[in-house]
Amino acid sequence: MAFTEDTLPSLEAWKCFVRRLEERYGLREVPRASWLGAQRPDFLSHALQQRVAYLLPAAVCDDLSQKEARFCSISDQSSTEAKVAVPGAIIAAYVGRNLQGPSGGVHGGAIASLLDASIGMATNPRSDPDGYVTAQLVVNYRQIVPLGSYVLALAYVHDREPARRKCYGMSRLVDAGALAQSTDTCALQLQRPLEAARRDTARERVYADATALFVRQRHRPETHGERSLQTAAVNRVESVSGFLGAQARPWRASL
Length: 255
Ligand SMILES: CCCCCCCCCCCCCCCC(=O)SCCNC(=O)CCNC(=O)[C@H](O)C(C)(C)COP(=O)(O)OP(=O)(O)OC[C@H]1O[C@@H](n2cnc3c(N)ncnc32)[C@H](O)[C@@H]1OP(=O)(O)O
Description:
Helix 1 (11-25) runs parallel beside helix 2. The relative contact order is 0.20. The longest helix has 26 residues, at 229-254. This protein has helices spanning 11-25, 41-50, 108-123, 195-198, 229-254, and strands spanning 56-57, 88-95, 132-141, 149-161, 166-175, 186-190, 206-216. A hairpin with a 4-residue loop joins strand 4 (149-161) and strand 5. The protein has a single domain (5-254), classed as Hotdog Thioesterase (Thiol Ester Dehydrase, Chain A, Roll), CATH 3.10.129.10. It is α+β, with helices and mostly antiparallel strands and 255 residues long. Residues 73, 77, 116-117, 120-121, 124, 126, 129, 133-136, 164-166, 213, 215, 217-218, 229-230, 233, 236 line the site of Palmitoyl-CoA (PKZ).
């Protein structure tokens, strides 16, 4: 997949999303060297200014099948630092009518997928997006998610046992309110977990939460042809999007 200017989110949408995240959560991140910066100096300078480490816009949204998964990174793949796992992640997503479940709200599988993806993003180092896979995911559905909502999955890693290849994470799916409404669905990997991911805050409605065990694979499945890290990450995002889309269509047809 080629990364052209067209496949990136608009700078305005991104600025707006980051500003609102900062307002709500006091998000402050350390900038990285740039792969993206070479292509989009305006993105990089804004990222450096805002100190946001990483941006990974995804196509986990209403018109999943039409939307292309989009990806960009402001991390330096070759640096040692980039090999360090990120302990936090956020996915902002629009959950539309094509994700309707039997409850009349958003389908539980779509909710589980968002929670899983966010913990996966917090668990996997940028240098190795395929390293850890979900071994166990426990979801508590606390409130129906209304169709047509904007939601945030706030994830963090609370425990790692590298010797035993295990990593435990948690994520909360909360109402994004006005925070994400003017932006594309997107995701960020964070160098520090958000405090809000750890506990309920009075400010936001919690729709669901999940705990997960991720295990580092001993043997990787065969892949066809050589894949760059970027391609692997895009594939990962596409698979989450694809799952949500595939899940949604049969439900819509049967209702
Ligand atoms: C520039 C680029 C940037 C890109 C940056 C983007 C990042 C983008 C990230 C996106 C994130 C997407 C997130 C989606 C993630 C999936 O959806 S992955 C797909 C769903 N998961 C799977 O398909 C996994 C299938 N299962 C398996 O492959 C294997 O069972 C596993 C999980 C690898 C474990 O198998 P194994 O290696 O034989 O494990 P084994 O040695 O028996 O066990 C290791 C340890 O784990 C424990 N364990 C294993 N399984 C379990 C279990 N189910 N329950 C409890 N304990 C277990 C064992 O008890 C053992 O514990 P200790 O004895 O060491 O204490």
